[in-house]
Amino acid sequence: MLIVKASINFLRLVLRFCTFIELKPIIMKIKYLFIAIFTMVTVLGCQTNPFTGEKNLNFVSHEQIFPASFAQYDQFLNENKVVTGTKEAQMVKNVGQKIVTAAERYLNANGYQGYLKDFAWEFSLVQDDAVNAFAMPGGKTVVYTGILPIAKDETGLAVIMAHEVAHALADHGAQRMSAAQLQQLGAVAGTVALSGKSEQTQQIFAQAYGLGSQVGVMLPFSRSHESEADHIGLTLMAIAGYNPDEAAQLWQRMQAEAGQAPPEFLSTHPSNQTRINNLTQWAPQAKAEARKYGVTSFK
Predict the structure, then answer these.
(1) 90 burial via Cβ count (<10 Å: 0-12, 13-18, 19+)
(2) Does the annotation count 164 as an active-site position?
(3) What is the DSSP string of 149-188?
(4) CA–CA separation, 121 vs 92, rounded Å?
(5) Nearest CA to 171 among 267, 64, 94?
(6) pLDDT given at position 179
(7) Residue of 22, 122, 164, 228 marked catalytic
(8) Tens-place pLDDT, residues 186-210
């Protein structure tokens, strides 16, 4: 799992830089504690991603996260202007349902019947100039009107919504919660290990751990989710009959609209150019996968 490897590598990096304050023995203890924790989590807290076949860190169940997610979604709709009765609002609902139908076809064909039983799909268009869309754990999905000009048409919208639906399908929200809990656990372990050291030593470790775990572990973890959602979404939109070649073109438009972005290693998302390159490379694979389901033409 990416976060396990990244966490261990981060602790090795901290180990190299902590000798000057005599923290090396303590960091070694923390490192071994992390390895033990992550080994336990690997055995008890991992679930198989049906789209990648990989084991993912996730010890937050649907029963835990979905009710809170649904409540937050209802609150969000109550606090924002939901667009109804328009051609655009209906398009959002239609595209979302096509993507979900494609996901069901894929899951059923690959031995994951019933995978979506706890999901409650809903697709809403909200009046907001922000270039944004999101899907919450359990399938509640929102598209902002501000992203529609960049989407341009139904296929562009399918790129956006398939990506967001993929986040929900892959349980990325629960994985982020699991990772955040482990990050907090690491901070607690460090505090306990340094309880007998000076306040300065404790502050140095806390600052190093906070910045290092964010840049070295959590941000790469987030970027891996974005790339995974791009890849899964590309396959789903192709099975739904949409042309995956359009995905790279959408991100070219995104790139043209975007202002100056932070360096990729400081961002929660891959750079626009990275996404364009990946989507271009993956599009033929998505078409080949769609043909397995009888889809031979794409719009």
Answers:
(1) middle
(2) yes
(3) HHH-SHHHHHHHHHHHHHHHHTTHHHHHHHHHHHHHHHHH
(4) 12
(5) 64
(6) 72
(7) 164
(8) 666 666 666 666 777 667 666 655 5
- On whether the pTM is more than 0.85, the answer is no
Q: Cα dist. 202→11, 98, 195, 218, 257 in Å? A: 16, 53, 8, 22, 44
Domain ranges of the chain: 2-57+173-214
Rounded CA separation 52/171 (Å):
13
- Residue 205: which residues within 8 A CB-CB, separation 6 or more? 18, 23, 190, 194
Nearest to 132 by CA among 120, 148, 119: 148
Taking the C-alpha atoms of residue 191 and residue 188, their distance in angstroms, rounded to an integer, is: 5
List, as one string, the DSSP characters of 120-151: --EEEEE---SS-EEE-TTSEEEEEGGGHHHH
Are 150 and 246 in contact by the 8 Å Cβ rule? The answer is: no
Structural contact between residues 281 and 227, judged by C-beta atoms closer than 8 angstroms: no
Residue showing tokens 């979905």: 66
